[in-house]
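Repro case for the chain-ordering regression, as requested:
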Amino acid sequence: MKKTRTILALCAVGFGLAFSAGAVVAQNDPIAQRKALMKAVGDTGRAPAAMLKGEQPFNLAAVQNALKAMQDAGKASPALYPDNSKAGGDTVALPKIWENKADFNAKLAKLEADAASGLTKIIDEASFKASYPDILRGCGDCHRDYRARR
Amino acid sequence: MRKFVVAALVLFAFGLAAFFALTAPRRAVAGDPALEQGGDIERGRIVFYAGGCASCHATPGQDNRLVLGGGLELKSPFGSFYAPNISSHPDDGIGRWRTADLANAMLAGVAPDGAHYYPSFPYASYSGAKLEDVRDLMAFLRTMPPVEGKARDHELGFPFNIRRTLGVWKALYAPVPAPLRDDSGRPASWNRGRYLVEVLGHCAECHSPRNALGGIIGAQRHAGGPDPEGKGWVPNITPHGMKGWTRGDIEQLLDLGMTLEGDSVGGSMTSVVRNMAQLSRDDRLAIADYLLSLPPREGPQNPKR
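-- result from build under test --
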């Protein structure tokens, strides 16, 4: 019995270590981190897109999820493009980012601000249809110059 | 020996004459007074956005897409092209142009002075434009603010820097100018979509692979390929590359830039989306209908997928 408990405790410690090691790796891997943020924006964004097309009923919580993912991405991204992350990890970030860092960061700040304003403004289907499309159009401002086509 | 020299000279003269005859720029329209009258500015605005004029001719580095001073660099395997000034400035832009000048430029790739334009200006597509659309576009362009300064000259390698050689390129790859005729067996929406995709929107210019001479490979038209501007890939927009897409999905992409995966399109397509968002929803749906009706064509393989 005692032995089992020890093994379990060791396993828990092992898991804990493995988990934090994973977190450390992710923290030191800005390419993976920024990809995860953008993927979250895409994944949470599909439901609101379907609502705009009339393929899904309006759901405020799902819209807020998408906006929060955008807000998180806008807030965390400026720190995730250090000079040593220009290449590798199959990145589609373009070198222009590091040539125009101030503009790039200003656009990320705008993404965060647009998402935040969406979170307060969008309260029902009508306000969603009125302001959500323009928030999406903002994505192109960054993707135009700073992300490779694929 | 003397006979040989004479024969060689005669042959050379014939060759030169043939080259000049074959490469002579041919205009699409002569001066037609009716073309110079009227023109609907609001309809011209739609032609302007459907044709993507601002995407290349808007002055880079500023946000107003109606400041048409040109200067944007277009990279290609042949060198760099710089989009010219098409603002209403009388000397640096096209402020003195007649509608016939615009028609010859767009439909035949011929400048007012008779020189060939490079096909980076997509006249191979615009060759099917309707003259009333050119007239409306001219009316709209005349309302644009004048912008001072000419764009720099193209930087091209030999022999592509000799404009006359474009006569050969046109004979091979540019259709004879003629307005695209509607197919009466198809719905109006499909016909409108075909006109927007094949002529004004000139989608195939980027979404098709090209051969060594820069001609579109017909069997892979709209089937995508490596980005001619550098890093990246231009997607296949025939049904082969659009599996799972509905007309509503395509309409939404053209309006908002959002893909089926929840991604937002990048590169110069962002500018296309800003143009398409100015069109009516019906026009965007017409584009979708036409694209979905294309034969599925397999293009070059994207190594990343």
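Ordering looks correct now. Residues 71 and 112 of chain A are 4 Å apart (CA to CA).
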